[in-house]
Amino acid sequence: MAAKRGTKTSMKNMEKELLCPVCQEMYKQPLVLPCTHNVCQACAREVLGQQGYIGHGGDPSSEPTSPASTPSTRSPRLSRRTLPKPDRLDRLLKSGFGTYPGRKRGALHPQTILFPCPACQGDVELGERGLSGLFRNLTLERVVERYRQSVSVGGAILCQLCKPPPLEATKGCTECRATFCNECFKLFHPWGTQKAQHEPTLPTLSFRPKGLMCPDHKEEVTHYCKTCQRLVCQLCRVRRTHSGHKITPVLSAYQALKDKLTKSLAYILGNQDTVQTQICELEETIRHTEVSGQQAKEEVSQLVRGLGAVLEEKRASLLQAIEECQQERLSRLSAQIHEHQSLLDGSGLVGYAQEVLKETDQPCFVQAAKQLHNRIARATEALQTFRPAASSSFRHCQLDVGREMKLLTELSFLRVPEAPVIDTQRTFAYDQIFLCWRLPPHSPPAWHYTVEFRRTDVPAQPGPTRWQRREEVRGTSALLENPDTGSVYVLRVRGCNKAGYGEYSEDVHLHTPPAPDTTQTVGTTAVLRTLPWRRYHPLLS
């Protein structure tokens, strides 16, 4: 009785493993994507239609199409989804997607169909054949059927084509793999069509599917290509596509994968105490994280409040950063607990693995167990190398506001820059005048400078002294090009900021060299190039 109760609990817990990521309902005719995730055949066709791919949603060749899987009848939620607008489809067709009149099927550059996998959030290449090149996950279908029977024992079998609420099914169709009421059976098997020849059967939910067939050659798969990680038939082996690949009989792949999955599952089931201990540790870590996060927020709030209303926005941003960090850690820890809970006996993943191990169809088992073993292997590795996914400490959220407090203490009205100091060691005059300066150590900053200069060896003009100016000089140096030769220049500089202009620096007098002798141009030029640059201090020439 206990074993039966445990099996029933396990079947109920595995429901999340049997939900399509697109429609969030039980899988119906699931397809295995190249990324090893599953999706309903009808959902896959609808997704490709929304992406603008026309004519690539064909059914896999291993099984006939079921009218119960059409987007308009399969689920009310799917029927409410809007298809792409006609103008968008027209643009997609013109840009090369899908098929349209005038396009050759045997083009030199076949179209690569990308399918947005809802599970891994990545684009998966389906190849030129689209959904027709994918395998049906028959093992997953059987697990779904067993689950349905376990949770609805003795319940009536309902029509899969009726609009809600569905009527009780009265007929079944092996070819269509669906159950019908009388009206729906007549509707989907119209007189005078090929479907009218389908023989009705008693309604059932356990239509036994055929074995896996190669989607390329319609042959039963007999081997497994380890290089491509794909089931292949006899004809696939001799094709150039698998030339040089490591191919093994499906029996060998079945036995090897089943042994690995059995050992991994046995390890998890044999360490249930460890799983529960780690879950308890994670729950305790979550509690400490909540307490530490609250303490960190209180400390940050107290420090930021001391800075006044001006820093209120900063306080909010710091709290938001801690809150995001805390939520991220809690999310990671909760996800880790969720992963560990899936390893407990009777959980969804373990129960699903146990059900897959009951599969006797070797190709189907290999197909379904490949993805499952990867998940079990990752769970085993996480169990062996366990440590909490996030730390409960928030020490990195501490604030040091000593510098900010000092700045607030010294806060006062802005003052103009002090008079700059001319750097006589770096100031010189030659064929150019280079002026360099610096601000006193405790001077307010200057946004820019104004440099003024004039000649002193020219006759004075009536009126105020006229200076030449260079405005808004950035930095602490200026270069005056093409000064008059043999002349004395006086220069000064002052800084400016938001408070206004500061005082002028002391005047500095620079004497430019005389003009070279034009009768000995070559020799003079050589002499000038060898002479060092002379620095002229006030009236020292």
From TrEMBL:
SMART domains (UniProt xref): BBOX (SM00336), RING (SM00184)
Stretches the record annotates as Disordered: 54-86
Chief localization: cytoplasm
Skewed-composition ranges (Low complexity): 60-76
Domain B box-type: 209-250
BP GO annotations: anterograde synaptic vesicle transport; axonogenesis; microtubule bundle formation; neuron migration
Signal peptide residues on this chain, from the entry's feature table: none
MF GO annotations: zinc ion binding
Domain Fibronectin type-III stretches: 416-515
Compartments where located: Cytoplasm, Cytoskeleton
InterPro entries: COS_domain, E3_ligase_FN3/SPRY, FN3_dom, FN3_sf, Ig-like_fold, Midline-1_COS, Znf-RING_euk, Znf_B-box
Annotated keywords: Coiled coil, Cytoplasm, Cytoskeleton, Metal-binding, Repeat, Zinc, Zinc-finger
Domain COS as annotated: residue spans: 357-414
UniProt keyword Repeat, yes or no: yes
One GO cellular component term: axon cytoplasm
Name the UniProt record assigns to this protein: Tripartite motif-containing protein 46 isoform X4
